[in-house]
């Protein structure tokens, strides 16, 4: 008989992006391990910052999707840079969760996604019971990441968030971390807690790479969130286009700025392709030479899931973010690295890429390496045994 399990997350399809894909894959994988999965998530709103059209005008939406029960709760949706509005958005979902907990039976096994810290805090506070297992899935380290991105200063608010972070760790029975850096940080706060390295490996059958012949300029591609942390607008300004074309997929806060820059610089070989489905994106990506995975600056604990996904596609990566992600690229020979924030070095690395090395045989080797080393099912089996 299947065991009930609940996943509480801020992101879930039909929202796009790595976070929603990661949680959906986790949910589907746990179903294969004999869990009956319920998901609690806000009404879809990311990354646009407004509730999707099909879900507007409702406080709660419940549906059966992929043999899962999905409860979508009201949220004050916003992607504003205004800190007060962002706080209201997090608090609104927290209030919805408290209301949900009051009127629903919550399974004895619960996976809580963090960040946001306040949402995780709500779950850890209201769901803590002796007979319940709370699993905290830490995908980014907050408030440290916010401090490194310049969103926070070391003041009373920051110290309050640190206390919330410690509280969340202290109430969890098991803590998942997507990087060794995250688990090392958690260990300095709650050294007695059980932890598990849960990488954001993909779970899809990669498309076949039958033919690939590099042609002319290197076709460099970025696909993902067009947010401040990724710095794609700055890249458009700083890249040396002598030997490259730059292609962009995605949506986010910088989209309008990027579109304006392209229209004002029509001679630059930059193409914005908009937002497409994940399946469409995979088919498109295998036609490019090199993918770019950037972070405006190194964020401690961050390892972009794109590194694993692109390797599954046989697509070599130029990593521009530092930290543990850089080490992964070098250790597994996934591509090239450039010093985080150093655009001169980024252009030097691009200029040294030999187009003749981008042939089909090397791409197939990269894909096979990814399938062997970044095995989602093997990792999930190990995790399922713990819970």
TrEMBL record:
<dbReference type="InterPro" id="IPR050194">
    <property type="entry name" value="Glycosyltransferase_grp1"/>
</dbReference>
<dbReference type="InterPro" id="IPR028098">
    <property type="entry name" value="Glyco_trans_4-like_N"/>
</dbReference>
<feature type="domain" description="Glycosyltransferase subfamily 4-like N-terminal">
    <location>
        <begin position="18"/>
        <end position="188"/>
    </location>
</feature>
<dbReference type="Pfam" id="PF13692">
    <property type="entry name" value="Glyco_trans_1_4"/>
</dbReference>
<dbReference type="Pfam" id="PF13579">
    <property type="entry name" value="Glyco_trans_4_4"/>
</dbReference>
<protein>
    <submittedName>
        <fullName>Glycosyltransferase</fullName>
    </submittedName>
</protein>
<keyword id="KW-0808">Transferase</keyword>
<dbReference type="GO" id="GO:0016758">
    <property type="term" value="F:hexosyltransferase activity"/>
</dbReference>
């Amino acid at each position: 008989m299947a065991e009930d399990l609940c996943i509480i997350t801020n992101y879930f399809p039909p929202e796009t992006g790595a976070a929603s894909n990661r949680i959906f894959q986790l949910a589907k994988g746990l179903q294969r391990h004999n869990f009956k999965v319920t998901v609690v998530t806000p009404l879809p709103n990311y990354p646009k910052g407004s509730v999707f059209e099909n879900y507007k005008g409702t406080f709660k939406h419940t549906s059966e999707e992929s043999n899962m029960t999905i409860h979508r709760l009201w949220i004050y949706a916003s992607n504003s840079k205004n800190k007060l509005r962002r706080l209201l958005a997090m608090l609104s979902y927290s209030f919805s969760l408290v209301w949900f907990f009051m009127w629903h039976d919550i399974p004895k096994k619960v996976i809580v996604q963090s960040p946001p810290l306040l949402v995780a805090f709500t779950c850890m506070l209201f769901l803590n019971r002796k007979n319940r297992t709370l699993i905290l899935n830490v995908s980014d380290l907050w408030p440290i990441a916010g401090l490194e991105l310049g969103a926070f200063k070391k003041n009373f608010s920051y110290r309050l968030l640190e206390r919330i972070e410690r509280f969340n760790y202290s109430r969890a029975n098991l803590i998942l971390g997507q990087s060794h850096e995250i688990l090392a940080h958690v260990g300095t706060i709650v050294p007695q807690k059980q932890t598990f390295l849960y990488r954001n490996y993909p779970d899809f059958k990669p498309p076949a790479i039958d033919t690939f012949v590099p042609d002319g300029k290197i076709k460099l591609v970025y696909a993902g969130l067009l947010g401040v942390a990724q710095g794609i607008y700055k890249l458009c300004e700083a890249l040396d286009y002598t030997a490259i074309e730059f292609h962009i997929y995605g949506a986010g806060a910088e989209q309008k700025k990027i579109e304006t820059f392209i229209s004002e610089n029509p001679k630059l070989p930059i193409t914005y392709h908009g937002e497409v489905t994940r399946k469409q994106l995979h088919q498109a990506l295998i036609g490019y030479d090199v993918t770019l995975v950037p972070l405006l600056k190194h964020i401690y604990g961050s390892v972009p899931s794109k590194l694993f996904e692109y390797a599954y596609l046989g697509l070599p990566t130029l990593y521009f973010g530092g930290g543990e992600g850089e080490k992964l690229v070098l250790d597994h020979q996934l591509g090239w690295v450039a010093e985080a924030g150093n655009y001169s070095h980024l252009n030097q690395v691009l200029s040294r890429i030999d187009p003749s090395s981008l042939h089909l045989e090397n791409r197939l080797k990269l894909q096979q390496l990814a399938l062997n080393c970044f095995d989602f099912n093997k990792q999930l089996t190990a995790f399922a045994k713990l819970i």
